[in-house]
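Please go through this protein, sequence plus structure tokens, and consider how the sequence yields the tokens. Keep your notes short.
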Amino acid sequence: MNAPRDVSHDEAVVAMLKADPDFANEYLAAALEEAELPGGQVALLAALRHIAEAQGMSAVAARAGIPRESLYRALSPKGNPTIKTFLAVVRGAGLHLDVSRESAAA
């Protein structure tokens, strides 16, 4: 009998996104909301990478109009995509960003 295989955090998140594609909306929104915190920008790119992996990197790259290799590079832990690339990937993943005004402190 085979022992259960340990699943990495990244693999677990991708599996959750495959099982529930609507989870991508909440996941990216939460990552975007925390982008200004320490490590937040890296986490935002990781979230977008997880979403792209769940949908298929080649498919997302094609819909974004960028080469697959560029997508991997842009969303790598050391990636630093331009805003144009970031928005193209968001659109390629079938998502869009919403902006709202922060509520004023009372």
Q: What stands out?
A: Helices lie at 9-19, 23-33, 40-55, 57-64, 68-74, 83-92. The two ends are 61 Å apart (CA to CA). Residues 40-55 form the longest helix (16 residues).
